[in-house]
Amino acid sequence: MNAWTLAPVESKFADIIWSHEPIASGELARICMQELGWKRTTTYTVLKKLCTRGIFQNNSGIVSSLLSREEFYSLQGERLVEDAFGGSLPAFLAAFTKRKALTAEEIAQIRQMIDQAEEV
Question: Which of 20, 35, 65, 78 is most buried (most C-beta within 10 Å)?
Answer without folding.
Answer: 65
